[in-house]
């Protein structure tokens, strides 16, 4: 259950999400279409959000594959760095919901809860360890001014010991959150979760 | 139209696409799934195209890519728009992000929404979705618009990142 209290500050807490428009199941659908939509929405633990996205079912289904790949890919191993990239994009774009999810995952991989909290509170200018600094700088540039990116921007990550696939993973994941943030932020709003 | 070539590779150009191929080929599913997401939006079903037209999707894509001056991405969608019969003056307007699209039409409302979501996604409110509805866009159309904006926002950053990885600036 979610409350009506809108969450507007960055947090490591679990949040809910309330839509600003009709869920697909609230619109006129053919019986066949309704069955498909209900099957997809019913199995999701992000029901409201998926139900709104289901208003364009083909895009939702195609995007879900990209999303799942981005999340579940084991090659390279799930890394703290891509989670930090996602957190950076979300922090810059103002997506409190996405930032809370991915800062928790960054914390899970690194055990650096203090760094996560400082980054959420202070943003890209926060005092960060070396690898974190390199990842945040790349993710910030990609989020705010992607066309200014040059090969030289990747050097700090290489010097910090990240291989090319891990750097691509950070880029892909950060870029994907330009997408995820914009969907989450513009179709509804995060809410404080009721215990 | 289903594309025979990978759209990301096409946007990168032959040289950079070849340079990053050894990396991209390690995750072939990622490339195929991204292409499928692209097709869902830019080669939509008839029902989906009725909710938000192909021409409008291409123009919105040009607009989003023009905000970040992502020329290769904007040019790609401008080419698709021309093939769909969109006039040059419309394309010039879409590329000129300093000028608001003030028309009281579905496209005008969509373009104003694209400007807001691209520039300041955290400044949107429920009222912005109401404005799309008042312009005659259905819930299905609103989602096709939202997904188009979000997809291109992702794509142009992946292209910029791959270009840097491939040694080009």
Q: Quick recap of the structure?
A:
The complex is a heterodimer of chains A (195) and B (169). By secondary structure, chain A is mainly α. Helices cover 61% and strands 8% of the residues of chain A.
What does it look like?
The complex is a heterodimer of chains A (195) and B (169). Chain A has 195 residues and is mainly alpha-helical. Chain A folds into two domains: 2-72 and 187-193, no CATH class; 80-185, AhpD-like. Helices cover 61% and strands 8% of the residues of chain A. Chain A is built from nine helices and three strands. Chain A has helices at 31-42, 47-53, 57-72, 80-93, 96-110, 113-122, 130-144, 155-159, 164-187; strands spanning 2-6, 15-19, 188-193. In chain A, helix 4 (80-93) crosses helix 7, helix 4 (80-93) packs parallel to helix 9 (164-187) and helix 5 (96-110) packs antiparallel against helix 6. The longest helix of chain A has 24 residues, at 164-187. Chain A is globular, with a radius of gyration of 18 Å. Chain A starts with a strand and ends with a strand. The mean pLDDT of chain A is 89. Chain B is mostly helical and 169 residues long. Chain B has a single domain, classed as AhpD-like (Up-down Bundle), CATH 1.20.1290.10. In chain B, 73% of the residues lie in helices and 0% in strands. Chain B has helices at 7-12, 14-24, 28-42, 46-51, 54-67, 71-83, 88-95, 106-119, 126-134, 139-165. In chain B, helix 5 runs antiparallel to helix 6, helix 5 packs parallel to helix 7 and helix 8 (106-119) runs antiparallel to helix 9 (126-134). The two termini of chain B are 31 Å apart. The interface between A and B is large, with 52 and 57 residues.
């Amino acid at each position: 259950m979610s409350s009506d209290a809108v969450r507007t500050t960055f947090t490591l807490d679990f949040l809910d999400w309330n839509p600003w428009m009709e869920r697909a199941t609230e619109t006129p659908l053919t019986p066949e279409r309704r069955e498909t939509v209900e099957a997809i929405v019913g199995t999701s633990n992000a029901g409201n959000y998926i139900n709104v996205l289901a208003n364009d079912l083909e895009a939702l289904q195609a995007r879900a594959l990209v999303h799942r790949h981005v999340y579940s890919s084991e090659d390279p191993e799930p890394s703290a760095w891509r989670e930090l990239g996602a957190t950076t994009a979300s922090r810059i774009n103002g997506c409190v919901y996405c930032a809370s999810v991915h800062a928790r995952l960054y914390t899970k991989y690194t055990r650096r809860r203090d760094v996560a909290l400082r980054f959420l509170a202070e943003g890209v200018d926060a005092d960060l360890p070396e690898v974190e600094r390199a990842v945040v700088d790349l993710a910030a540039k990609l989020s705010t001014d992607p066309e200014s990116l040059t090969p030289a921007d990747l050097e700090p990550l290489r010097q910090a010991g990240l291989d090319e696939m891990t750097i691509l993973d950070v880029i892909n994941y950060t870029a994907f959150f330009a997408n995820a943030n914009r969907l989450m932020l513009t179709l509804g709003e995060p809410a404080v979760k009721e215990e | 139209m289903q594309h025979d070539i990978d759209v990301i590779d096409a946007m990168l150009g032959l040289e950079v696409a070849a340079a990053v191929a050894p990396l991209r080929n390690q995750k072939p599913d990622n490339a195929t799934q991204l292409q499928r997401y692209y097709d869902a939006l830019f080669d939509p079903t008839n029902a989906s195209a009725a909710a938000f037209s192909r021409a409008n999707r291409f123009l919105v894509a040009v607009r989003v890519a023009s905000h970040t001056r992502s020329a290769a991405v904007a040019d790609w969608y401008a080419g698709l728009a021309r093939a769909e019969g969109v006039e040059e003056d419309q394309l010039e307007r879409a590329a000129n992000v300093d000028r608001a699209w003030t028309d009281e039409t579905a496209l005008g409302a969509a373009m104003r929404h694209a400007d807001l979501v691209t520039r300041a996604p955290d400044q949107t409110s429920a009222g912005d979705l109401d404005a799309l509805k008042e312009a005659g866009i259905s819930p299905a159309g609103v989602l096709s618009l939202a997904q188009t904006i979000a997809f291109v926002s992702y794509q142009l950053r992946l292209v910029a990142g791959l270009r840097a990885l491939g040694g080009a600036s």
